[in-house]
Amino acid sequence: MAATSMAAALAASLPAPSTAAPAPTPTYEAIPASMAKVIDIEAEIPLTFVQLDGLVVSKIIKHAREAPSSTAHGLLLGLDLDGILEVSNSFALPHHVGDEDDKSAKSSARHQAAMLRSLKEVQADDSVIGFYQATTLGAFFNQTLVDTQAIHQEKLRHGGIVIVHDLSLTARGNASFRAYRLTAAFMDAYKKSNFSTSSLMSHRLTFSSILEEVPLKIRTNPLLSAFLGTLTETNAGSISGAGGERTGGSSLGRSFSVLDLGTGGVTRNLEQIVEAVDNYRTEEGNLSYLSRQIARERAKAENYIAKRKEENQARVGQGLAPLPEEDVSRLFKIPAEPSRLESLLLLGQIDGYGKSLESVASTGLVKMYAAQGGVDI
């Protein structure tokens, strides 16, 4: 009773509610045409090219060289504006060796969240627009890359991109950076988790139509351009000639990598091709075995159905009631058609190794002829 009287006293002490005035009708102004693309972040502006900052290039190269293996990968940060994907920053993701998949995934997720939170605190770019992956000898097709890119394409505008950095080309003095994203046909089959023969034929999927390349440009800011110019400019009096006079030289020092004939790379490339072909033959053998199993089970089911029809016809002829039709799927466990995605990825690896071998062998052949000519002289 005391609580009720206290509540009544508090209610009486409050001011009486005033009649609320009707809310004014909001008015909307049309967005100027010059600002429509900037303000409307959902506008369907086609992606024209990817712009990679010079700082990101140096960070990716550094990470790929220092990584314990060729599996260096990380996230790309930047801005997607007016059809241009500007990559202004990146950071590496940890590589776990010998850990369980769940533990490594959780550790990578915590590291990623901590890095993005730290970047946001210092007001740096913290918008994820894709990821990068280091590879060697041009073979970057694998299940992990496809799964990661599929997740990005479902969550990010324009699907995000994956930048592939080839270590073998960079080691020969040609920095290789290429941007890719999954095709619409592949994404449709991936969402349905159907990579059967009929699905591949309906989507017209081959290993060459899994990814589509996006044009990529590298931008250097004035500070980085000045630094590179300082490294490449000649310094008078830095190197002594044979006669004791001082000659000009570069801050980078002399490099004799161009004199390498590249025969070791050809051997390694051939070994990788042979291994990839063996893996492909093993996968095709497994698919053939499963296909024969499916064919046997289907033949059994068809024979059972034909036999039941003959029995029912005989019973009808004798004036008896036909036997009920049973569910064939319960009697015969027909396996689902196996996925051919792994075969497509292995074919992509073989194609990448083959293109890399073509480039290395042609260059090495020219160098060997030039070296032979110099010896003959």
From TrEMBL:
Superkingdom classification of source: Eukaryota
MF annotations from Gene Ontology: metallopeptidase activity; translation initiation factor activity
Domain MPN: 50-186
Annotated keywords: Cytoplasm, Initiation factor, Protein biosynthesis, Signal
SMART domains documented for this protein: JAB_MPN
Gene3D superfamilies (UniProt xref): Cytidine Deaminase, domain 2
GO cellular component, one term: eukaryotic 48S preinitiation complex
Signal peptide residue numbers: 1-20
One example of a Gene Ontology biological process annotation: formation of cytoplasmic translation initiation complex
Cellular compartment(s): Cytoplasm
Primary role: Component of the eukaryotic translation initiation factor 3 (eIF-3) complex, which is involved in protein synthesis of a specialized repertoire of mRNAs and, together with other initiation factors, stimulates binding of mRNA and methionyl-tRNAi to the 40S ribosome. The eIF-3 complex specifically targets and initiates translation of a subset of mRNAs involved in cell proliferation.
Family to which the UniProt record says this protein belongs: Belongs to the eIF-3 subunit H family.
Oligomeric and partner information: Component of the eukaryotic translation initiation factor 3 (eIF-3) complex.
Protein name (Swiss-Prot/TrEMBL): Eukaryotic translation initiation factor 3 subunit H
Source lineage: Eukaryota, Fungi, Dikarya, Basidiomycota, Agaricomycotina
